Amino acid sequence: MQTRILVQTKDFDINQELKLAEKYAANCGAIINFIGKVRGNDNPQQPLSHLYLTHMPEVTEHEISKIISQAVHRWPISYACVIHRIGKLSVGDQIVLVLTASEHRDHAYQANRYIMDYLKTEAPFWKKECFANGQEYWVEMKHSDQQHTQSWQ
Predict the structure, then answer these.
(1) Long-range pairs for 128-133 at CB < 8 Å and ≥24 separation?
(2) CA quadruple 72, 18, 50, 142: dihedral sign
(3) Is residue 31 exposed (0-12), middle (13-18) or buried (19+ Cβ within 10 Å)?
């Protein structure tokens, strides 16, 4: 089992990450990826300028590692990658990549969804929405995100 965990300001290249997955996950029948992006058109009366994401260094990577370990105990995945960006992110920018590989697609799909659900509720990231009018708000955890995580228990 190979893992790759990065928390960074720079963008990631999905093609490069897929090549790494293929290198580390020999004989896999499925590579599943999820890319989260910054939305900006939720409210036309208050357009989003950008997001600002911060985290708790070392603790964040440790929590992500725990989430991946829990997924590995549930499904036979041979590779997992999580790249999460921090700092100022503009509308349309990539925020997060979750990539999982397994011999069978269902295992890769399930593990990918599990990792993403737990990232939303367990990894120590904080997100501030910054609007074009100058207003800023720290984002609270959504009830729906908590429900998704609880559904795995």
Answers:
(1) 128/51, 128/52, 128/53, 128/54, 129/48, 129/51, 130/48, 130/49, 130/50, 130/51, 130/52, 131/46, 131/47, 131/48, 131/49, 132/46, 132/47, 132/48, 132/49, 133/46
(2) negative
(3) buried
Beta-carbon contacts of residue 120 (< 8 Å; ≥ 6 apart)? 141, 142, 145, 148, 149
Say what the pLDDT of residue 46 is: 84
- In the chain, the domains with their CATH numbers are 2-150 (3.90.1170.40)
Residue 57 three-state SS:
coil
Task: Say if CB 86 and CB 8 are below 8 A apart.
Answer: yes
Task: Give yes or no for a contact between 52 and 127, defined as CB atoms under 8 angstroms apart.
Answer: yes
Between residues 148 and 138, which one has the greater pLDDT?
138
Could you give the percent of the chain with pLDDT greater than 70?
A: 100
In the block, tokens 């928390």 appear at: 7
